[in-house]
Write a structure and sequence with these properties.
By secondary structure, this protein is an alpha+beta fold. The chain has 3 helices and 8 strands. The protein has one domain: Mannose-Binding Protein A, Chain A (Roll). This is C-type lectin domain-containing protein.
């Protein structure tokens, strides 16, 4: 009779032991999953922090670039002759192309300088060497003539005299003439970057460009 009672008790103990082992196994599995989730969360946070850092770096570079362009613009428009480059060398005659002037304009001579220069340097050359400025354009016909003249050089674009003055978004001409005409490429100037204006040789449209880019340029005097 005692043996009959002991057998169910032994079976009950064995089953209870199995349940405890299974619970321990499930608990260990859950802890492992939780650890993996925490590790994955840490990696995602690290990636987010890295991406945020990259974005911050790109924004800082963009701001620094904007400051640099603005600084060069203001230097380029410096009117004091003494502030011009003392060691500036005027272009050789073989590096220039004389273009016919435009009737009705105050300036009667137009010169294409084929040697690429930064905007500031180009403006200084126009002033010091020719007593003029980078060319201003006030109507489509003159813009088309400039485009046809400069198409003889193997370049994508040339500097003209447009630039953003100061820290606003207002365009001006280097010769201080009125800004009464524009021939912008699609998306320009709103989506463009840079504070100086270049003329595309193909199509003759204008686009914003970084002032420190080196381009051929057109002087008027």
């Amino acid at each position: 009779m005692k043996c009959a009672l002991l057998l169910p008790l032994l079976l009950l103990g064995t089953v209870s032991s199995l349940y405890l082992e299974n619970d321990a196994s499930h608990l260990g599995s859950r802890e492992a999953d939780l650890s993996q989730d925490l590790e994955g969360s840490g990696e995602q946070e690290g990636e987010l922090a890295l991406n945020y850092g990259v974005l911050e770096s790109e924004e800082e570079e963009a701001v620094a670039s904007s400051y640099q362009d603005a600084f060069e613009d203001e230097e380029a428009m410096e009117s004091d002759p003494a502030a011009l480059d003392k060691d500036l060398q005027c272009p050789k005659e073989e590096d220039t192309i004389q273009l016919p002037g435009s009737p009705g304009r105050k300036t009667c001579r137009i010169l294409l300088v084929r040697t690429p220069k930064k905007f500031r340097k180009a403006q200084n050359i126009c002033r010091k060497c020719y007593r003029g400025n980078l060319v201003s354009i006030h109507n489509y016909n003159f813009n088309h003539r400039i485009q046809c003249w400069v198409s003889r050089i193997n370049q994508a674009q040339v500097w003209i005299g447009g630039f953003v003055r100061g820290w606003g978004n207002r365009f001006s001409w280097a010769d201080d003439s009125s800004w009464n005409f524009g021939y912008w490429a699609p998306g320009q100037p709103g989506n463009g970057r840079g504070r100086c204006v270049a003329l595309r040789i193909r199509g003759g449209h204008w686009q914003r460009a970084r002032c420190r880019s080196r381009l051929p340029f057109v002087c008027s005097f």
